[in-house]
C-alpha cells in the first residue's frame, strides 16, 4: 500500500509518495492552481501515480496541507457572516484591544471588521464569571433574531456570549435553534470551538471560523470528489496548525484550525529529520514562492503558541509558533517613492510567476535574480520540466532595477538577494534571539524550493554555524504530513489560585477532557493502543496578564508542590526570574488527544549513491557575492553524491525540487540519512 502527502503552496503543490511495503519514497511537484487549489492536488496525484506506475486503489492514505482558510481571510473572500452575542457587546469585535504596534504611524488602519454592524445582533442573556445564570436566555428574542438573519442573506453565523466558556448552555440553545430553523446556515458557537477566556480573542476566532466555514466546506467537497474520481476510496486528512492531522468532518467544524496547515507540517517533519541527524536545536527555514516561514525547535520539540494573528485578526487556537513574512522566490523587487530598492511582500505567485518562467510575468523577482547570477540553472528546473528564460530575466531586472539605480544587472541581482536575505534574517531573529535563544547553538534546517538557495547567506548573517538541507527540500512540508499524528486540542478555563482544592479541580478538568479526547479519537478510528494524551497547565503569578505553560504528565500523579516548582522553573526560562512569595494562579487546563501514526522516517533514506565524479553534471559560472565575480562552480546531482565524504565549496547541488548553494568558504558532506550538512559558513563580502 502507498501513502501520499500533499502540500499546497502559493506557487507549487508538492507531493510525496511512500511505498509502505518496500520503504521506497518518491517526490513530485506541479504548479499550484490558486483559483481552486484542489485542481492542483488532482493533477499532482494523477501525475504522481502515472509517473511511478501506482494503482490508485492501492493508496491507503492521503494527507494534505492547505492555505484555503488563510487565503479566504487575507483576500476577504469568506461567507457573509452574522453574529449573535450578549446584549451590550455587539461592538466588541470592532473595539478590539487597545494595542498600538505602530504607535507613531498615522496611516496604519485596522483590518475591516468581517461582520458589519448591521449583521451583529444582540439577545438578552447573561452569565457571570463562574458560569452562573444572571439573566435567562429569551428564546422569543432569539427566534426574532434568527428571522432577521435569514432575511439578511447571511451564509454563516457566529454565536459568542459573555462567559460561555464557563457555561455553554445559552450558546448551545441558540446553536441548536439556528440549526433547526435555518439548516442551511453554517453555525459556530464559541463554546464548541474555544471554551477559553479572553472575550475579544474568543469572539474573533469564532467569527473567523464561521467566515471561512462555508467556502472551506465547498473546497473539501471538491477535494474529496477529485480524489474519488481517481478511483480511490480514501478520505483525505488535513494538517492543522498544531502539526496534527484532522479528518474532513473535523475540518468542516473547525476550519480556522488550518490557518497554518502546510507550514506546521514542515516544522513537524524538520523536527524528526533534525533529530535523526543529531541536531536537537534547530531553526526551520522554509522558503517557498510566496513566503518564508521560520520557527524554532528546542530540545527536539517544536514551540507552540495560542496567541497570533492571521491577516491582523486574532486567532486563539493552539498552533506551532511560526513567523511568516512575504519573502520567497516570487517576491517582487520594486522601487519606492524615494528610489530605494525593496523586495516583497508582493509576490508574482504561481500565475504569472517570475519572468524567467516564461508564463507572462512582467516584474523582477528573487527567482529572476538567482537565474541571472546562475545560482539557479539558466536552462531548466524541476528535472527539465520547467524551461528557464535567462534573457527575459536579465531584461526585466535591467529595466526595472539596474537602469534606475545605475548598476550592472549582476549588481542589481545581488542587491535584490541581499535585501531578501536581510528580511529573512530579521524573521529568524524575531523567533530566536529576541526570545533569548543563542543562535550559535542552533542549526538552520533549510527547505522549501528556495530555502537551500538562501540558507548559507542567511546563516552567516544570523551567526548560525551549520546548515542542514534534507532530501528533496522543496517537498518537506508534504513529507512532514507523512510524519504527523492525528491530534486535536481541548481546553478549559478555570481561573483560580493554586491551592489543594483548585489543584483537585484541575485534575477533574483533565479527566473530563480525556474523556472528550477519547470520544473524538473513537470517531477518528484510532486504536486504543495508538492513543496518547499531552497535558499542560497554563498559569501565572497573581497580577500578571499572560500565562506560562507547564507540562503535566498524564499518567503520573503530580502534586501541587511539584507543579509549583515546575511553574517557577518554566517562568525563569520564559522571563529570567521567578517570584517565590507570589501567589500562583491556574488559568487554563489544556490537553492534546493524539492518535499515533507509524513514522516512516527510515523509508526516507537515500536510494543509491555514487562517486563525486559520477555526481558532477557540469560547471556554471555563478556569482556568490558583490566582490567574487563569476566563479567556475561544479554542479552536482544530489542523488549521486557519496555519503560521509567532506567536500569544499564552491558547489551547486541540484535535485528535482530545489537547488542548494554552497559558497566558496564552506565545507559540506552528505550524512547517512541523505541530508547535506554545511559548515564553515562565512559572511559574503
Helix content: 25-40%
Shape assignment:
globular
Largest sheet properties: 9 strands, mixed
- The poorly predicted ranges are none
Our Rg estimate from Cα atoms comes to 26 Å
Overall pLDDT score:
91
* CA distance, first residue to last residue: 51 Å
Strand content: 25-35%
Number of DSSP strand runs: 37
Structural class determined from secondary elements: alpha+beta
Number of helices: 17
Which characteristics define this entry?
685 residues; alpha+beta; 9-stranded mixed beta sheet; 6-stranded mixed beta sheet; 37 strands; 32% helix; 27% strand; globular
How does this structure look, described?
- The chain is an alpha+beta fold.
- Helix content is 32%, strand content 27%.
- The protein is built from 17 helices and 37 strands.
- The strands form 10 sheets. Strands 13, 14, 15, 20, 25, 26, 33, 36 and 37 form a 9-stranded mixed β-sheet that branches. Strands 3-2-1-4-11-12 form a 6-stranded mixed β-sheet. A 4-stranded parallel β-sheet has the order 6-5-9-10, with helices on both faces.
- The protein is globular and about 80 Å long.
- The model has no long low-confidence stretch (mean pLDDT 91).
Short description:
With 685 residues, this protein is of the alpha+beta class. Helices cover 32% and strands 27% of the residues.
List the helices and strands and how they pair.
Layout: E1 2-8, E2 12-19, E3 25-31, H1 37-51, E4 59-65, H2 68-74, E5 81-86, H3 92-95, E6 120-123, E7 126-127, E8 133-135, H4 139-152, E9 156-160, H5 169-181, E10 186-189, H6 190-193, H7 199-229, E11 237-239, E12 245-247, H8 248-253, H9 261-276, E13 282-287, E14 292-298, E15 301-302, E16 304-305, E17 308-310, E18 313-315, E19 319-320, E20 323-325, E21 331-335, E22 341-347, H10 366-372, E23 380-381, E24 386-387, H11 390-405, H12 409-431, E25 443-447, H13 451-462, E26 466-469, H14 476-481, E27 486-497, H15 500-523, E28 531-541, E29 548-552, H16 560-575, E30 584-595, H17 612-615, E31 616-623, E32 630-637, E33 647-648, E34 651-654, E35 659-662, E36 667-670, E37 676-679
Helix pairs in contact: 1-7, 2-7, 4-5, 10-11, 10-12, 11-12, 12-13
Amino acid at each position: 500500500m502507498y501513502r501520499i502527502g500533499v502540500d499546497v503552496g502559493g506557487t507549487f503543490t508538492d507531493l510525496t509518495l511512500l511505498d509502505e511495503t518496500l520503504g521506497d519514497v518518491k517526490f513530485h511537484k506541479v504548479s499550484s492552481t490558486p483559483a481552486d487549489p484542489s485542481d492542483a492536488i488532482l493533477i499532482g496525484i494523477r501525475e504522481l501515480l502515472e509517473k511511478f506506475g501506482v494503482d490508485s486503489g492501492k493508496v491507503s492514505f492521503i494527507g494534505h496541507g492547505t492555505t484555503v482558510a488563510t487565503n479566504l481571510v487575507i483576500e476577504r473572500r469568506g461567507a457573509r457572516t452574522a453574529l449573535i452575542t450578549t446584549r451590550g457587546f455587539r461592538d466588541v469585535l470592532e473595539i478590539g484591544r487597545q494595542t498600538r504596534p505602530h504607535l507613531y504611524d498615522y496611516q496604519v488602519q485596522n483590518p475591516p471588521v468581517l461582520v458589519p454592524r448591521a449583521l451583529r445582533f444582540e439577545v438578552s442573556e447573561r452569565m457571570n464569571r463562574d458560569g452562573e445564570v444572571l439573566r435567562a436566555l429569551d428564546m422569543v428574542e432569539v427566534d426574532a433574531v434568527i428571522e432577521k438573519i435569514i432575511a439578511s442573506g447571511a451564509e454563516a453565523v457566529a454565536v459568542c456570549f459573555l462567559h460561555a466558556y464557563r457555561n455553554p448552555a445559552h450558546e448551545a440553545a441558540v446553536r441548536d435553534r439556528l440549526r433547526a430553523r435555518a439548516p442551511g446556515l453554517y453555525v459556530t458557537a464559541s463554546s464548541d470551538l474555544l471554551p477559553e477566556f479572553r472575550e475579544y480573542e474568543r469572539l474573533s476566532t469564532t467569527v473567523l471560523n464561521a467566515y471561512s466555514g462555508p467556502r472551506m466546506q465547498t473546497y473539501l467537497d471538491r477535494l474529496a470528489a477529485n480524489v474519488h474520481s481517481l478511483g480511490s476510496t480514501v478520505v483525505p486528512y488535513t494538517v492543522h496548525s498544531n502539526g496534527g492531522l484532522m479528518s474532513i468532518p473535523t475540518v468542516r467544524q473547525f476550519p480556522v484550525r488550518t490557518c497554518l496547515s502546510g507550514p506546521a507540517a514542515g516544522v513537524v517533519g524538520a523536527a524528526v529529520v533534525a533529530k535523526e541527524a543529531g541536531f536537537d536545536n534547530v531553526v526551520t527555514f522554509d522558503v517557498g514562492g510566496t513566503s518564508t516561514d521560520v520557527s524554532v525547535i528546542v530540545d527536539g520539540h517544536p514551540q507552540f503558541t495560542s496567541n497570533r494573528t492571521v491577516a491582523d485578526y486574532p486567532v486563539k487556537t493552539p498552533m506551532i509558533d511560526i513567523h511568516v513574512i512575504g519573502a520567497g522566490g516570487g517576491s517582487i523587487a520594486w522601487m519606492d517613492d524615494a528610489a530605494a530598492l525593496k523586495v516583497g511582500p508582493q509576490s508574482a505567485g504561481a500565475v504569472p510567476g517570475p519572468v524567467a518562467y516564461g508564463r507572462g510575468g512582467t516584474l523582477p523577482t528573487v527567482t529572476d535574480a538567482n537565474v541571472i547570477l546562475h545560482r539557479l540553472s539558466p536552462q531548466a528546473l524541476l528535472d527539465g520540466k520547467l524551461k528557464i528564460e535567462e534573457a527575459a530575466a536579465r531584461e526585466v531586472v535591467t529595466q526595472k532595477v539596474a537602469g534606475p539605480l545605475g548598476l550592472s544587472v549582476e549588481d542589481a541581482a545581488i542587491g535584490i538577494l541581499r535585501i531578501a536575505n536581510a528580511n529573512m534574517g530579521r524573521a529568524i531573529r524575531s523567533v530566536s534571539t529576541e526570545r533569548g535563544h543563542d543562535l550559535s547553538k542552533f542549526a538552520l534546517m533549510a527547505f522549501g524550493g528556495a530555502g537551500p538557495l538562501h540558507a548559507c547567506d542567511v546563516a552567516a548573517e544570523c551567526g548560525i554555524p551549520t546548515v542542514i538541507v534534507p532530501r528533496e527540500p522543496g517537498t518537506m512540508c508534504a513529507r512532514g504530513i507523512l510524519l504527523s499524528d492525528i491530534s486535536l486540542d481541548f481546553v478549559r478555563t478555570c481561573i483560580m489560585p493554586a491551592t489543594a482544592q483548585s489543584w483537585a479541580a484541575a485534575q477533574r478538568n483533565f479527566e473530563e477532557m480525556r474523556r472528550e479526547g477519547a470520544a473524538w479519537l473513537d470517531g477518528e478510528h484510532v486504536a486504543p493502543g495508538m492513543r496518547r494524551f499531552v497535558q499542560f497547565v497554563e498559569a501565572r503569578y497573581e497580577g500578571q496578564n499572560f500565562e506560562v505553560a507547564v507540562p503535566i504528565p498524564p499518567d503520573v500523579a503530580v502534586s501541587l508542590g511539584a507543579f509549583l516548582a515546575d511553574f517557577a522553573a518554566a517562568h525563569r526560562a520564559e522571563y529570567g526570574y521567578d517570584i517565590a512569595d507570589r501567589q500562583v494562579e491556574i488559568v487554563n487546563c489544556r490537553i492534546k488527544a493524539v492518535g499515533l501514526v507509524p513514522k516512516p522516517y527510515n523509508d526516507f533514506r537515500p536510494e543509491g549513491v555514487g562517486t563525486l565524479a559520477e555526481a558532477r553534471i557540469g560547471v556554471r559560472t555563478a556569482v556568490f557575492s558583490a566582490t567574487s565575480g563569476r566563479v567556475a562552480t561544479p554542479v552536482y546531482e544530489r542523488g549521486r553524491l557519496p555519503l560521509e565524504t567532506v567536500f569544499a565549496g564552491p558547489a551547486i547541488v541540484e535535485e528535482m525540487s530545489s537547488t542548494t548553494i554552497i559558497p566558496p568558504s564552506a565545507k559540506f558532506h552528505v550524512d547517512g540519512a541523505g541530508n547535506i550538512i554545511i559548515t564553515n559558513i562565512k559572511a559574503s563580502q
